[in-house]
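MOLECULE: protein
FOLLOWS: sequence and fold
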Amino acid sequence: MAGTMSMTGFGTGESRSDLGVFAVEIKSVNHRFLEPRVYLPRELSSLELPLTRLVKDRLGRGKVDVSVRWTPGPECQPKAAFNLAVLRQYEAAVREAAGLLGRDETVSLEFLLGLPGVMETAATDADTSPPAQQAASAINQALDALVEERRREGAVLEGEVLSRLDNLAALAQEVEARREQVVESYRERLRKKAEEWAQTASLQLEPGRLEAEVLMFAERSDITEELVRLRAHVEAFRAAFTGIAAGPQGKPMEFLAQELLREANTMASKSRDTAVSSAVLGMKNEIEKIREQILNVE
């Protein structure tokens, strides 16, 4: 196996230190491009860009959701503090407004404490900024698990697609073996038709006319080029699983699947034989199955 990876998977990671516990969950699903989204607590917002870069360095395609939770350690527990200056300003403003309205009302302390800017979170003596290294450790653990799961599923996808390619090649071989019989069958049908015309309508084909018709039929129904190109695409598909080329494999495979279907459709339009038509229909079915599988290849 060359390391084919799917785009779906799940992974978790955890890192502990005196600053607390970082827990990371990563989920990925199919997507045309790589679209990472990192969800962080507000106090960890500064880590969004470096964690996003870690995802981009490890993955090629997929919609990836990264959820990070941080449980602060004892040394990082925030302390509550009140901004008394702001509190007094609010109280004075409320009293002034009540006087202007001619109302004699008091405002509860609970209401004042809930106003913006009154309650603040003060840092402890310890540095409360969680180090990027600890977050990176947790996310790399999660990415390791995610990549391993994507690789396992990718191996299953690879086996399925290679099996379909074998079926496709076998059907192409059937069509190849049938080509000469198709022309000969047409010649025989035309010869019998000519004999019927001669007996019933006293019509005689000109010398060489029958062979000329057979040659025209052979030219119109010739699918040699399509078979050659289809075999080339099948081999290119197999080579794509070797992992020689760097980067995601899914997009080149999608293009190859389109080309395979194009050749099969052309053969179907040229087919003048029931057996060939049946084989080409089987080829198109295999190609559709391949396309379904590679939609999940990274």
